[in-house]
Amino acid sequence: FNLEVRTIAGDLVSKVDVGPLQAVRDILQSATAASSTEEDKGDGSRRSLVHGGQVLALDSSIQSYGLCAGDVLYLIREPRAPTRINLFANHSLRTAGLSDLVAELSCQDSFPMSALDVGYCGLRGAEGASAIAVFARASRSLEQLKCSGNGLGAVGVAELAERLQGSHVSLETVSIRDCGLCGESGGVAVAKLFHAVSGKDLCISGNPELGVAGLLAFIRESPDLAGPRSLDAGFCGLTGADGGSSLANLLSGGLEKLTLSCNQCLEGLSTATFANSLPPGLCSTKLKVLVLDGCGIQGRKGGLIVSQLWKRAINLQELSLSDNERFGVEGVRALCEGMSEDSLLTSLCLSRTGLQGAESGTAVSQFLRKAPDLQELDVQNNAELGCNGVHALVSGLPPGNRLRELDFATCSIEDLPGSGILSDLVKACPDLEVLSIGMNGMLTAEGIAMLEQAFSSCKENGGCRLRALHLEGCSLRGAAGGRALASLVSCLPRLEQLGLLCNPDLGAEGVLALAEGISDRIPLRCVGVEACGLAGAAGGIASGALVRALPALEELGLSSNTALGAEGLVAFATSLQPTMPHMKQLDLVDCGLEGAAGGHIVA
In degrees rounded to 5, what are phi and psi of residue 318? Predict the structure, then answer.
């Protein structure tokens, strides 16, 4: 007799002639073949037949469901979430292992995979590249391919490009970091691969032998750089005037993000030499993010060079100069002098740039006065900035600034509790959402109390917007530290993230005091108490109390509490029963778990 198969919307898929003993599976296969486009076949979806609100079992017969002529079955498609396959650092997998893995896949051309990472898997040359290509072609939904740390070389990358050319593989992200690419042949191979897969984001960092010749070859084979959206060419051996010229060529393309970390391309270049390497009229309207970390940019000359780059990238929004340790106050001043009046910059990173004392703090605040749209400022790891420098920076902030994220971690703010910095900071930045003042050693419970007072006054004047607070390594101790934290957090009604890593004297007493004193109205989703001296059953009970006190909690970090051990984890699990929360992430790295007993307890 005849049955109709329709979509859930009522559209006819097919009419099928069936016998009473025929299996549902046969009808499903026939209907799927009739309804599927080439795109559908690769989406990894599961399909089912439904009648009368019931999903039909594949191995059951038509007769068992009492179906008769003219009945309608509905074809339901259940999208299957694409899988992320991470095989990173399986050094002995090699070509044979990866080939065997692909051969065992049940769906050779429709594996539901969105990301594949085969970094550092011992894949070498053309053979390794061929195995990667076969795996990549097994999916029609692949978006990210990472092959870092494999000795593919130019031959292997060219082979990968040839194997993927003309296939259905169309990637967003390609990473061939640290793959032994050298010179012109390496640059040509990279260009072939990237264009073979219609890529958008490319990482070629960690190929120090690529050099200027390789990068210029890549540029030559990539007309106008119209394809790539972002390029990470960090640690690629760009040096001297030729390196600066390559940088100029990159800026002339359509890139939105350019990363050149750890290339000494700007070290020793005079302003005039660099200016001469920029083509007349060069102007990038698309570049929004420029990362020049560790590029040997020094002092006033370095600041003027960066400001020239900035003028040519008129829509630049994010600038990172981290790890240019000799940039210093003169570099900041020169950058400020040369910046455009209509700057669109929203993010500036000056981490580890040799900022020292009040002069540097003042220079940074003057820069902020000329960058009215700046929302993120990172000055962490400037150990000689000190309390005077931070105070000068904060006191010089322009009224009406739009700062939302501030990072003062590891800035040697040793007398923070008595300095008045915290109250001045909160008053000066009413839109602040993320504050990092960790690793300054001497915040203590007294400093926490002052921070609470500052935020309480902010609350009275229109409300506090803080979403994330980082207090790592701040010498918080015992129950007093925990109570001070609870009082502070309870006055932050929007706080979602709290970082307390490396407060080893906080201990179980401190975490328990935090749990008992915190308001359950605070929407904390992520809390880190890593390396906080949690030990044994008491540590586990305190951790459990913290979870129970925070109904919105999704992520809890307990790593590096090495004395927690099996006893602590048993107490933690037991204290949560029978209302185990629906957490998404629990970090138990280095918590003293051992052998089978440790595994059973985790389970």
Answer: -130, 130
Contacts of 358 (CB under 8 A, 6+ apart): 388, 389, 391, 392
Q: DSSP 3-state assignment of 204?
A: coil
> From CA 528, how far away is CA 244, in angstroms rounded?
43
Residues 290 and 316: their CA atoms lie apart, in Å, by 8
How far apart are the C-alpha atoms of 329 and 312, rounded to whole Å? 23
The answer to whether the beta carbons of residues 42 and 110 sit under 8 Å apart is yes
| Structure-token pair, residue 539 | 């540590």
* C-alpha distances out from residue 434 to 94, 389, 392, 437, Å: 44, 20, 20, 10
Amino acid type, 199: G
497 closest CA partner among 475, 476, 472: 472
Residue type at 557 in one-letter notation:
G
φ/ψ of residue 373, rounded to 5:
-95, 0
Cα–Cα distance measured from residue 337 to residue 339, given in angstroms and rounded to the nearest whole number: 6
The residues pairing with 76 across neighbouring beta strands, listed in sequence order, are: 48
Q: Residue 578, preceding bond cis, omega within 30 degrees?
A: yes
Mean pLDDT to the nearest integer, 266-271: 66
Specify the pairing of strand 201-203 against strand 113-117.
unpaired
> Using an 8 Å Cβ cutoff, are 221 and 192 in contact?
yes
CA distances for 551 relative to 226, 523, 544, 586, angstroms: 48, 8, 12, 15
Q: Predicted confidence band at 92 (pLDDT cuts at 50, 70, 90)?
A: very high
Cα gap 255→231, rounded to integer Å: 7
Q: Which pTM was predicted?
A: 0.82
Quick one: DSSP state of residue 282?
-
Tens-place pLDDT, residues 11-35: 888 888 888 888 888 888 888 776 6
With beta carbons less than 8 A apart as the criterion, state whether 48 and 28 touch.
yes
Query: Rounded to an integer, what distance in angstroms lies between the CA atom of residue 330 and that of residue 338?
Result: 12
Sign of the Cα pseudo-torsion (567, 570, 574, 580, in order):
positive
Give the pLDDT confidence of 286-304 residue by residue, as tens digits: 889 999 999 889 999 999 9
Contact 288, 314 (CB under 8 A): no
Tens digit of each residue's pLDDT (9 = 90 or more) over 428-437? 898 999 999 8
